[in-house]
Amino acid sequence: MSRDPGGAQTFSPTRLGYLIDTLKSDWRTMLAYGVALVLYLIMVAISPSFASLEQISNILNLAAFLGIVAIGQTLVILVFGIDLSVSAVITLVNLVTTAFVAGSDARTLTAIPLALAIGAAVGLVNGLGIRYLQIPDLVMTLASFTIVTGVALLYSGGAPTGQSSRLLNKLGAGDLGGILPWSFVIWAVLAALTIFALTRTTFGRHVYAVGLNRRASRFSGINVGRTVVILYTISGATAAIAGLLLTGYTGSSYFGIGDPYQLGSIAAVVVGGTSIFGGRGGYIGTIAGVITIVLLQSLLTVLNIADAGREIAFGLVILILLVIYGRERSLRQ
Amino acid sequence: MTTIAASSRRLLRHARREPAVPAVYVVLAIMVVVYAVLDPSILNSDRATIVLAEKLPLVLAAVGQTIVFLTRGIDLSVGGIVTLTNVVIATQMGQGFGGIAVGVAIGLLVGIAAGVANGCLVGLVRLPPIIATLATWSILEGLALYVLPQPGGSVPIAFGDFPLRTFFSVPFPLILMVVLPLIFWGPVRYSRLGHAIYAVGSDEQAAYMSGLSVAFTKIVAYAMSGFFAALAGVFLTMQALSGDPRIGESFTLDSIAATVLGGTLLAGGRGGVLGPIAGALVLGLLSDLLFFTGVRPDWEYVISGAVLVIALVVSTLGRRISGEQSR
After folding, report:
1. Residue B211, class by beta-carbon neighbours within 10 Å (0-12 exposed, 13-18 middle, 19+ buried)?
2. A311 to B204: CB separation less than 8 angstroms, yes or no
3. Domain map of chain A by residue range?
4. Is residue B39 included in any domain, yes or no?
5. Is-contact B235 B61, C-beta < 8 A?
6. Which of A82, A129, A319 sits opposite B132 (nearest CB)?
């Protein structure tokens, strides 16, 4: 959007112009992309192989998983919520998919809606609990994290079985024309849909309204409850999609497969400039956040820093970025 | 107001105002009864001592978490502090009374330092607590891995035996559960600092405008959480007798659950530590009970989560009935 001399916000006529205008109006998003770029340049300087198509393709593949989970997390955080159950959903979908598919391409076709249903169901329960039982989002998603993890334990009896199919492997780890990972393609499509929904639809405007001021939104006629429930359902569904693709990528299942995506998704959203209090930010920034985090993880792996260093560095970088653009308003205002 | 009558009146007023607290004690009482029926050996004070010693760390961690909740914040790094304290003690503690004392002191200092760091990030730099403590959790876990990459280390057996005693048949851990929060939180609670903590949690802006140092208050709150988490780590080490860089993982979520079960609202400004003490015990005994009733261990997670949801629904309904919360 640009402001005309009268102060009203107008939309640039071209899509590219619109994108540029949006970036300009939200400096945090631009900063997030800047950080990602700088990080990438550092990595190429340290290890020139990072400039190779192969490496880029690999990074995009990994980024897709986090990026898809971050779609749901972004939506939920935009309305001042949080979803702590995504890692459990990913793990459950992973376990169920390998056991159900057992290497069969045909069963994969049924596994996809099944996984989506699982994720959406968890998300729906989250949303309903938050909306109708008045349970704070933190605790509700925490509880569902516990329950879903428990269900995963029950289902697998502690010993993951089955394996992924060729079709799923292609989607999770294969690529289009040798360069563009299928996961990335899927992510790109979902990302475009999300950005479109958030910026161009009424529903998207409602999301921002609810995030900024729930009460005022309700008085404006927005169905806050329904919006919140829908968003949590989507969060569960995107976690499920990521779980499916991850299953294809790893080929098998194991406990804890979803764990890195919990902190990772929240961090990606915040690093991307979306306010943890909702109402400000969006998925465009999250994309930058996702890339930053994936690059950071790759960098730490390449530098051969042990687990310890990775966790420390991860936390530190998030803190630094937060200091730069994630602070709360000063009390003096 | 030191007369017994005055104190009882105060207790009753408090109980009526915070219906969740007696509620969780009722639940606890029921659980203890069920436990005693299923396993009468628990009534033996030696056996009870062992069980209670096991639950003590979570009780302490929950107390710390509650204090932070009172400021309308959250401390996700509790698990990290517990872990770091554990590995530091396991690697640094020497023999003999002096060695033990030094080890404990170092462990507690680590926790307080981490807490102060959290407090500065939230209070001075003004980062949102949920992300700030999430990041410090990661850093602390990393530090723990650095100090002790694989489970190991050891502590003197005398150290591990410390909580395993009784006084006039009362298990020492039970005494500790009451006395430790009393000593370290009690004086703060009724001081100006304590009132500041409640004020900041209720309405930060108003607290600021009344001249309270919001930053300092928050630093103290998070420092106390760090202290109690470290204390939890100390007692956990007494139990484990060694170090493990993953030992504290469950403490973050469990301490939050215990705090919420104990009736402290996430919205801050209300609640106290009595509730979470019982909340932690409820959580701790729950898994034991599930084991006894022959429920397969796989169900433990599912039931814990369900219990949490049910408890929340009940307490929310209770608040609505008592008129404190409209819709």
Report:
1. exposed
2. no
3. 56-325
4. no
5. no
6. A319
Shortest Cα distance, chain A CAs vs residue B2, angstroms: 38
* Cβ-contact A57, A177 below 8 angstroms: no
Q: Which residues of chain B neighbour A309 with C-beta distances below 8 Å?
A: 142, 146
Cβ neighbours of B131 in A, within 8 Å: 266-267, 270, 276, 318, 322, 326
Q: Considering Cα of B254, then B258, then B259, then B264, what sign does the dihedral take?
A: positive
Digit-coded pLDDT (tens) for B43-60: 788 888 888 999 999 999
A72-107: per-residue pLDDT in tens? 999 999 998 999 999 999 999 999 999 998 888 888
State whether CATH 3.30.70 applies to domain A56-325. no
Q: Are B281 and A129 in contact (CB under 8 A)?
A: no
CA–CA gap between residue B129 and residue B119 (Å, rounded): 9
Count: domains in chain B: 1
Q: Is the separation of the CB atoms in B84 and B233 below 8 Å?
A: yes
Are A154 and B299 in contact (CB < 8 Å)? yes
pLDDT of A291 strictly over 60: yes
Q: Which among A85, A89, A312 is the top mutation candidate for probing chain B, defined by the most B β-carbons within 10 Å of its own β-carbon?
A: A312
Task: Please state at what angle helix B214-240 crosses helix B96-119, rounded to 10 degrees.
Answer: 140
Q: What percent of chain A has pLDDT over 70?
A: 90
For A275, list phi and psi in degrees, rounded to 5.
-75, 135
- What local confidence, expressed as pLDDT, does residue A4 receive? 44
Instruction: Give the gap in angstroms from C-alpha B94 to the nearest C-alpha of chain A.
Output: 25
Nearest CA in chain B to A313: B139
More confident residue, B39 or B295: B39
Q: Tell me what pLDDT residue A208 has.
A: 92
Dist. CA A60–CA A74, nearest whole Å: 19
B102 Cβ contact partners less than 8 Å away, ≥ 6 residues apart: B92, B93, B94
CB-CB contact of A75 with A207 (8 Å): yes
Name the residue type at position A160: P
Nearest to B205 among A144, A150, A331 (CB): A331
Could you tell me the pTM of the whole model? 0.84
- β-partners of residue B152 are B243
Looking at the DSSP bridge assignments, the partners of residue A176 are A180
Mean pLDDT of chain A: 86
Mean per-residue pLDDT for A282-306?
Answer: 86
Q: What pLDDT digit, counting tens, does each position of B229-278 carry?
A: 999 999 999 998 889 888 888 888 889 888 888 877 666 667 788 888 98
